[in-house]
Every structure is written in structure tokens, then in C-alpha cells.
Design a protein that fits this description.
By secondary structure, the chain is an all-beta fold. Helices cover 2% and strands 41% of the residues. It contains 1 helix and 13 strands, in the order αβββββββββββββ. The strands form 3 sheets. Strands 1, 4, 5, 7, 8 and 10 form a 6-stranded antiparallel β-sheet that branches. Strands 2-3-11-6-9 form a 5-stranded antiparallel β-sheet, with no helix packed on it. The two termini are 29 Å apart.
Length: 202
């Protein structure tokens, strides 16, 4: 995701702007790597910023949850920062095909979000059997605060993560497949489960 290709790399996902409801096809969301991995990033500084990123329609089944990672950093850096007095990041859901949205969580300055990505999980059991659209709405609010910071979102996922679920996401070495059986293998692994993992065998 570069800030202009969301629907290409994640088919069905959209951007928009607006208070309470997304409209249009553009927003302030772009990409960042300041946290050591690719995240979706939007800046909250200018009054009027009401940035949305939202999903296609999803059929919720039993045991589904919404997972996301969120962090706050100073503008275009990995340094810690704080949110403005009435700024908010809303986790939104729609059950009428985008006709209206309801907040299932709200992050404000009182939540003391850090510059380390933190995982949040939302039980979607109340929506089982329904089609939903989920979204993230980052709002500057109505007060023009001096805080100039970025909101980072990553690993937004709807489904049922098992407790233990490791996945290989990149083969780092060998760079070619020619060599001996004794050649070391280096891979990047992500923990998709809900329990921290140590001492595992690849």
C-alpha cells in the first residue's frame, strides 16, 4: 500500500473522508516503514482531517474477531508522541452495507497509545450471520491542537486466529536454490496467533 493503490493490493478495500461516514475515494492514509515494518499511516495535525480506510463486505461467522495493531508516532518519525485533546481514532462497523457506521472502539489521548504497535481484538460474535464492513476513521476533531503526529495501523484482519499460529512470510537466504543440503536457511516469521511464541523449531 503506497497511499494510492489500496484497492489494487487489497481488492475491495477503499479510502474516503468525512465525519461519521466515508465519502469520495481519497484520504490522508499513506504508507510508512518508520516502525521497522510497513504500516498504513495518516497524519493528524491539520483541522479538517477525517480519514477513512474501510473493508469490503464480510460475512461474519461464529468465533470471528477483528484484529488490528495501532501505534502513535511523531510526524514522519518513530519517536513517541501524544494525540490532540479531541482527536480520535475510531474502529467502525457497518451492518447495512455502508449506509451507516457505529464505533466499536475509540482511541483518544486518554488511552496513551505508544510508538510500539499494540494488538487489539474485538469479538464479532454479536454480528455472526450478518454481512459487515469494518473501517478505521482517524479524526482531527474540532480543536486545532498543536500536536503533529502519525497514526499507524497494521495487521488488520477479520477471522479466527488460533492461539498458536506461526507463518513464514519471507525467505531471506539462500538467495538461490543452488547449493548443498548443509546450506543455512534464514526466514522471517510472523506470529499470527494470540499467544507469544519463543523457542519454536522451524
Amino acid at each position: 500500500f503506497t497511499g494510492s493503490n489500496l484497492s489494487t493490493v487489497f481488492p475491495g478495500w477503499k479510502e474516503g473522508s468525512g465525519v461519521g461516514m466515508p465519502s469520495g475515494t481519497t484520504s490522508g492514509w499513506s504508507s510508512s516503514t518508520v516502525l521497522g515494518q510497513a504500516t498504513a499511516r495518516t497524519n493528524l495535525y491539520n483541522l479538517g482531517s477525517e480519514d477513512w480506510i474501510y473493508s469490503p463486505k464480510y460475512a461474519v461467522v461464529a468465533n470471528d474477531s477483528l484484529f488490528l495493531d495501532i501505534a502513535i508516532t511523531n510526524y514522519l518519525s518513530a519517536t513517541a508522541d501524544v494525540m490532540g485533546s479531541d482527536d480520535a481514532v475510531y474502529v467502525m462497523i457497518s451492518t447495512d452495507c455502508g449506509g451507516s457506521f457505529t464505533a466499536i472502539d475509540t482511541f483518544t489521548v486518554a488511552d496513551n497509545l505508544t510508538n510500539s504497535l499494540t494488538t487489539f481484538k474485538y469479538d464479532l460474535a454479536p454480528y455472526a450471520g450478518n454481512d459487515v464492513i469494518v473501517g478505521i476513521w482517524a479524526s482531527e476533531g474540532t480543536v486545532d491542537d498543536t500536536e503533529d503526529y502519525d497514526v499507524h495501523i497494521d495487521n488488520l484482519f477479520i477471522g479466527d486466529f488460533p492461539d498458536n499460529n506461526l507463518a513464514v512470510v519471507e525467505l531471506i537466504q539462500p538467495s538461490s536454490f543452488c547449493g548443498t543440503a548443509a546450506k543455512p536457511i534464514d526466514v522471517a516469521i510472523i506470529n499470527l496467533g494470540t499467544i507469544a511464541q519463543t523457542g519454536f523449531t522451524v
